[in-house]
């Protein structure tokens, strides 16, 4: 598991290597200087959508934010026990993500196992460049995309423009487990 504190350190190192001030990067990412400082110092755990925005502002991949090594790789296998948590349940937005391809450098997609706890009553609204696909493995969820709401149950899949505001909540008393694939051009 990649420690959340390492993500902030990686962001800071990448920012400094580009000779960006906190203010410069915050402006490029559309964040406040204070929020970005908290992220770098591991006092805030941003959602993946915010990490994507920061990566884009830095001109790096999400993989680099996570500190993944660059190797010449054409195929990678991540065993179930090798998954890394990208965010913890309750870490500011309630979802948890387990990486499914962290060994593959410079990937164009970010596949993960997404878990939404059954007790989630609200969610941050996510919005980022690209496209996203969510396949529900367990449970049922209410998925909100723009002004539309969809009920998705185990086996259902949604593919959508992720630049439109979106979020999901459990539809009943069960955790929701999904395969989530984010593509950022």
TrEMBL record:
GO CC annotation terms, alphabetical: cytosol
GO molecular function, one term: DNA-binding transcription factor activity
Domain (HTH cro/C1-type) ranges: 11-65
PROSITE patterns the UniProt entry points to: HTH_CROC1 (PS50943)
Top-level division of the source organism's lineage: Bacteria
Pfam families: Cupin_2 (PF07883), HTH_3 (PF01381)
Keywords, ordered alphabetically: DNA-binding
Protein name per Swiss-Prot or TrEMBL: Transcriptional regulator
Organism expressing this protein natively: Desulfosarcina alkanivorans
């Amino acid at each position: 598991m990649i420690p959340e504190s390492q993500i902030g350190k990686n962001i800071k190192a990448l920012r400094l290597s580009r000779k960006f001030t906190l203010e410069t990067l915050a402006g490029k990412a559309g964040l406040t200087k204070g929020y970005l400082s908290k992220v770098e110092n591991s006092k805030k755990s941003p959602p993946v959508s915010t990490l994507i925005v920061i990566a884009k502002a830095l001109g790096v991949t999400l993989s680099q934010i996570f500190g993944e090594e660059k190797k010449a790789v054409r195929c990678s296998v991540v065993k179930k026990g090798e998954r890394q948590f990208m965010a913890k349940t309750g870490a500011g937005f309630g979802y948890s993500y387990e990486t499914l391809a962290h060994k593959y450098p410079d990937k164009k997609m970010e596949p993960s196992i997404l878990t939404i706890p059954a007790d989630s009553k609200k969610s941050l609204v996510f919005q980022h460049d690209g496209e996203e696909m969510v396949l529900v493995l367990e449970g049922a969820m209410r998925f909100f995309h723009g002004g539309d709401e969809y009920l998705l149950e185990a086996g259902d899949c949604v593919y959508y423009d992720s630049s439109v505001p979106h979020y999901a909540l459990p539809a009943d008393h069960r955790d929701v487990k999904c395969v989530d694939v984010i593509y950022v051009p």
